Amino acid sequence: MANKKKKAGKAKKRRAVRRTAAKSSGLTAGEWFEKLAAVQARLRAPDGCPWDREQTHASLRTYLIEEAYEVLEALESGDDGKFAEEMGDLLLQIMFHSQIAKEAGRFTVSDVIREVHDKMVRRHPHVFGEKRAKDSAEVLKKWEQIKKEERAAAEKKKGNGNGSKEDAKAGSLLDGVSRALPAALEGFQLTRRAARIGFDWDNVEGVFEKLSEEASELREAVSSKDTRRTEEEMGDLLFAAVNLARFLHVDPEIALKKANAKFSLRFRRMEDLAVKGGKVLADVPREKMEEFWETAKRAEKIDTAKSAEAREV
Known about the structure:
The chain folds into four domains: about 30-120, Helix Hairpins; about 130-170; about 185-200 and about 210-245; about 255-310. It is about 75% helix and about 0% strand. The protein contains 14 helices and no strands. It has helices at about 1-25, 30-45, 50-55, 60-75, 80-105, 110-120, 125-130, 135-160, 165-170, 185-195, 205-225, 225-245, 250-275, 285-310. It is globular and about 65 Å long.
């Protein structure tokens, strides 16, 4: 009976996705885009939505980040309907910011689209031009060089430099890595850019050795009771871990997010186990907490196995 319900649920989900596709098939992507732009303009109009009218670029920052993470969560869920919905919410943030800029006479969503269109053509000369690239590594290397040349041209436009190739060479390969990124993502981007020109480990063992070296230096710093050095060495260890993730083609931010979620799930199960025993977790002895933790881990493995079985049905 349970398997029948699962199959019915999956079939219902597939039908819902097909119905959604059918509904949108009457209009082109461009026409839907125009309709969305019109909705956002209406919401920001004098007789529109009070909340939408109050928003600024600054007030929307949190929503932009939240929507990006919700897209990742939906992607992981395997639910196409949810994935499409969350990508729409993220697109809405772009529309929102563009509408605010349009009202101030700065730029429009058309400018946003044109910029990214021209950028993609410009940075793929091996597709849209005469140049050729033998593999993805060469593509990435040329991509970074083109970005440097673009930055040099932008500096020339501002009156700094003449936009020559010499200016491009003078700039750093690391220019453009935003300091506003979360620390793990910033480290990931920095090491990835360096690796693109060959500044990288020959194999993963070298990164593991570096990780061990940094761990040893952190131990020494802790033993010396030097707070400043401990912070520095802790940072070096974390940076080495991010570099290892990058070398293994793992996004450290996403990996850490998953680890956070796993810890949260296990801890909440520990709290439930304590309540079932008539206590709150804070009153449970440490040894009992460890037992709860192991019980939570076993329950997690069972849930994972069940989910895998459900996906195969």
